[in-house]
Amino acid sequence: MTELITLFNHGPVALITIDNPPVNALSPGVPERLESALEAAQADPATKAIVIIGGSHTFIAGADINEFAKNIAAGKPGGPSIHNLLAAIEDSAKPVVVAIEGAALGGGLEVAMAAHYRVAVTSANLGLPEANLGIVPGAEGTQRLPRLIGLAKAAELIVSGRIIKAPEAMTLGLIDGIIVGEFIADALTFAEGVAQTRPVPKASVRPVEPDPAALPAARELAKKIRRNQTAPLLALDALEAAATLSFEEGCKKERELSAKSLTTPQAAALIHAFLAERAVSKVPGLPKDTQPYPLNKAAIIGAGIMGGGIAMALANAGMDVRIKDTSQEALDRGLATVCKNYQNSVNKGRFPQSVMDERMALIHPQLDYAGFEEADIIIEAAFESMAVKKQLFAEIDKVAKPDCVLATNTSTLDIDEIASATSRPEMVIGTHFFSPAHVMRLVEIVRGKASSDRVIATAMALAKKLRKVGVLVGNAMGFVGNRMMFPYMREAQFLIEEGATPAQVDRALTDFGMAMGIFAVDDMGGLDLNWRVQQQNAHLIKPGERRPLMLQKLYEMGRYGQKTGRGWYLYDENRKATPDPEVEALIEQTAKDAGIKRRPITDEEIIERCIYVMINEGAHILEEGIASRASDIDAIYFSGYGFPAYRGGPMWYANAVGLQKVSDRIEDFGWQPAPLLKRLAGEGKNFE
Ligand code: 3HC
Q1: Could you tell me if the CB of 640 is within 6 A of ligand 1?
Q2: Full-prediction pTM beyond 0.70?
Q3: What pLDDT, in 10s, does the model give residues 50-85?
Q4: Whether 259 and 361 share a structural domain
Q5: Is the omega angle on the peptide bond into residue 77 within 30 degrees of 0, that is, cis?
Q6: Annotated catalytic sites, by residue?
């Protein structure tokens, strides 16, 4: 076990290193020992200046988020108190320099801002991303940041949680130097250079420059990018305190606001979301030492929207990608879309033309299987038809090298049946990307009954390499995400038959926090696609089961959604949706013909029926082992289906509402609660 803190003297400079892997979080013991090391350096007359760095090439990624979660679970929300440490740093009579590699985030940046000087390597990441966790920075960050970089920039960084690199931090005045040479040597040299400076510069004594427009602008920004979230607004109150009160009083106010934010359900949900997203990579039952196959070269079948998006995701991660389609026209169209997407990014300044050129050069369009024998992974992203996929898997089985992972991007089909078309079902797995695949973070990794551990580990490693959230799920119709989406979609359609309108349902859902309403989602995905999936699964409908009436009608009218300019909504040339009176009249007529008496429907009923039906399906999925953990379902929903992370995901939300209430309401609606839901509710337990 490493020492949490070490102190070495390098001539007149004391070098203090924090070693709390993986990210040097401020876990219990770290602040206290850092303070003791500072005291020791103070007491040593030979020491003229102090440098603080983090071990493992990173500074401090903030307070320990696991501690937050533990305290919340124990009903005592709270974080570490590092105010004594901050005072010890800032009040040090000897200059203190924080030298940053990797991350100086949250409490990490707050420690750095208490130091007299900050230097960083070019690639260092600095920021106060606490809003992502639903909390207000609680270690004087809201008071020092505006003193260093001005109120407007501080407010923007805190509301957005945006992480900046050293060059931007330098321009803003957040750091005092960029290290381009040898990290420790340069940090020590910098410290020697400032060792005699008196008085030492302290952020806390600087004034906050008046900027009356800063906070109103940040409140507008919060409304836009942090809809319904309380922590960013509380953080702005703390910034207001920085602008109007003394440093000490401002810190007191920040402490109150930070403590308050930690008691909110949003903080609990967002902290859960952070940990859930990281838990997905720990696959129960998969030995930790399972070696993934190498992942350098990839090949894709199908240059459509999905194939092209996946090619971009792979090229963005530096992988060489062959992409095959059956006609030159399809290939040209696919590559033109890839090119257009990259060009948009260049035009928006996301990366320079040279990066686009490098990525385009990694993507090789072709009409045959040439070079597929070198691929480490082949991803089939062809038409969603079992016959087509089986044919393709039989073909790639003949060309792929023995240790090539054979992946299908199917969103609903049976992986085992697809695998049966090959001589090596153990090498077959599902990698269900979401559209647009170069943007969306979720990949459902679908294990077939024969998929080997190494193949599973490789698919998980691929998701990591692409910086996506890869969640391992079982092979069942719709896997996890779509399987929960089907009843949600169905319920939304029942609601419009019974009296709501698509616009009302969508508004209630977006007010709840969903990124998009379900009808808008359907229009985006295509009603034709939805209809085809319904047809393929018609055999699963139980006799006497209520079926929604409208989808078929709209499909038969050629209203396929955005692509035809009309679906549930009407679309203008900018794809802006407006409710269509024709659709509303058709809904009324359809309901009348079916003998459904329409009535006013409240937003509360919309939310309960849409979300609880999803939760109930999630409970079935958990019980069947299709998802290993409730938190995996949550991660799928907030990373791929627009479920608000500040509600933690559907299963966390169910726990927060109370499983008994969810179960009771499900019975009120005349549905059958899933046995797991009913059992846990009866035992007073939660989904886990
Ligand atoms: N506390 C505890 N564990 C943390 C952590 C933290 N602050 N930050 C990261 N970790 C852990 C992760 O859980 C993960 O653990 P695992 O290996 O067991 O899964 C491991 O470190 C690596 O993290 P990532 O998988 O996310 O690795 P990346 O390299 O992709 O990203 C990172 C590294 C940029 C540091 C990213 O983890 C991150 O953004 N962390 C959170 C930063 C943050 O929000 N800090 C603020 C905390 S709140 C705070 O400081 C309050 C203050 O005001 C008092």
Answers
A1: no
A2: yes
A3: 999 999 999 999 999 999 999 999 999 888 789 999
A4: no
A5: no
A6: 110, 130
